[in-house]
Task: inverse folding
């Protein structure tokens, strides 16, 4: 899966309607899916998709479960050594247990077990260091 900051992760573009990504969901009888916040958790792959108002805003990867690569500028972000290259060479903000890379829309947990890729619409939330990450 390739990551292009603030544009796409894998086959999915940030800002893409949920109906394009998951066409088999029953939107007609479940209007809450298009509500303010909605998530789809694929526990088998370790991927959590997050949506705001029906649009793709964030992808969370649980690395102990995830079995593929995530490429960013030729670096595999699932590899701890490659993560260290990003941490050592990109500007970041420390946010409790996370490094937030605002210029590229990436968050790496300090235990290096989680990756978050986010849309620019969530940047201000990630920059608020005391706001819980579950609040948006």
Result:
């Amino acid at each position: 899966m390739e990551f292009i900051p603030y544009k796409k992760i894998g086959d999915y573009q940030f800002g893409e309607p949920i109906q394009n990504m998951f066409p088999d969901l029953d939107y007609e009888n479940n209007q809450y899916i298009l509500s303010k916040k909605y998530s789809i958790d694929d526990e088998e792959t370790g991927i959590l998709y997050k949506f705001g108002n029906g649009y793709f805003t964030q992808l969370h990867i649980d690395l102990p479960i995830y079995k593929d690569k995530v490429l960013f500028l030729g670096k595999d972000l699932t590899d701890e050594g490659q993560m260290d290259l990003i941490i050592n060479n990109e500007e970041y903000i420390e946010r409790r247990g996370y490094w937030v890379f605002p210029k590229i829309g990436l968050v790496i947990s300090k235990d290096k077990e989680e990756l978050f890729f986010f849309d620019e619409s969530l940047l201000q939330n990630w920059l608020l260091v005391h706001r819980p990450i579950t609040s948006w």
Summary: Helices lie at 18-21, 80-89, 123-127. The first strand starts at residue 3 and ends at 4. The two ends are 25 Å apart (CA to CA).
